Each structure stands twice: as C-alpha cells, then as structure tokens.
Amino acid sequence: MRSSTLRTVLAWLAGLGAFAAWLALAVATAAPPVRAVEQLDRQRYAGTWFEVAGLPSGPQARCAADATATYWPLDERSLRLVRQCRDSNDRWTVTMGDAVADPGDRSGARFSVTQVPLWLRWWPRSSDPHWVVLLDPDYRYAVVSDPARRSLSILSRTPLLAPDLYDKVLVELRARRYPVERLVPTPQRAFRSPGSMPLAGRARLMV
Predict the structure, then answer these.
(1) Model confidence over 156-177: pLDDT tens digits?
(2) What CATH superfamily classification does 42-206 receive?
(3) How many CA atoms within 13 Å lie on the side-chain side of 167?
(4) Exposure winner among 40, 62, 155, 206, fewest CB in 10 A?
(5) Which residues of 108-119 are buried (b: 16+ CB within 10 A; e: fewer)?
C-alpha cells in the first residue's frame, strides 16, 4: 500500500514538474504586449500611404492590388480615413471612416476606426482598433496593427518601399512576434497610370 502511494505521489510530482516546465517555456516565448509608437505627429502622418504588404484578413482581404490609406485631420482627436483598393475582379472599392483617438492615450497613435454614424458609436462592435505600432522618424513608412495582432499593414509614402527599409521593418516586426510569415505583398500598379484610378484617388495623390 505504501509502495502504491509512493508511486502515486511521485507521478503527481513528475506531472507537476512537467507542467511547471511548460508554463515557464510558455512565459518565456509569449509575445510581448502590443505597444503603439511613443509619439505620432498627426499633421505629418496625414496624407496618402501605399500598402506594401498586409494580412489577408477582415475587409482588406478583398484587396488584390493598389491598396491605399489616406488620412485627413478632423479635429484634435480624430482623423478621416479613406481606404481604397482594387479587388480580384479589377473593381475599385472605396470605404470611408473616422479614426478616433482612444481615451487617455497620450501618444496620439492609438485609434479606433468606425464607419458608423455618431449616434450609433456607443455599440461595442462599432469600431476596430487601429494602432500605429512602427513609424519611421522621417515618416517614410509606418505599420498599423491592433492589440491582438490580428491585423497588420505595412505602409509607405511611396508605391515602392526600398528593399533595405522593408527588410528592416520585417526584422523589427519579427522581433515583436508579429505574424510576418503570413504577410502578403500588395502590388501597386495604379500609380503608373493615374487615369485608371477613381477620381477621389487621383485627387488624393495630387495633394
């Protein structure tokens, strides 16, 4: 009886040790919390950004090429966000929303994007997190994501981002545990022929 009890205790201790080892490994390899950049100048950030690569998720999953995001300051707490892209059937899609600063955020880089009218924005699912998590000091490129890393978009001020800058962004994102292996390059063809873009898109590119 004592031998059976001893084996039971030893088995329990072995299982506890295995669980502790697994827990330690999980903590050591866990992704760090997502953080927005320390400071965002909204005036410098405003304007048109070209998507260089992104995760095929959410509304952006329909985009096959020529994806851009254009921001206009509305007031001290919000930006107008206009997204456009070309789908797999070569049709243009244009969406408009407001990027509203998160309450209490001092960085100016944490927004919630909504496309619903003001009277409906109390609804919990009416907006999506939109955080600027990486930003070039000269505002040549930026990366937008969310606290759960479900979305990821690499943006550039020019249709093509220099390879060395792109590699630098990937190295930084990989170090922060973003799913860079799932990124899909976004072809930018419309800038070669501005006349093929929607009128609103051509106007923004000329600003």
Answers:
(1) 999 999 999 999 999 999 999 9
(2) Calycin beta-barrel core domain (2.40.128.20)
(3) 3
(4) 206
(5) bbbbbbbeeeee
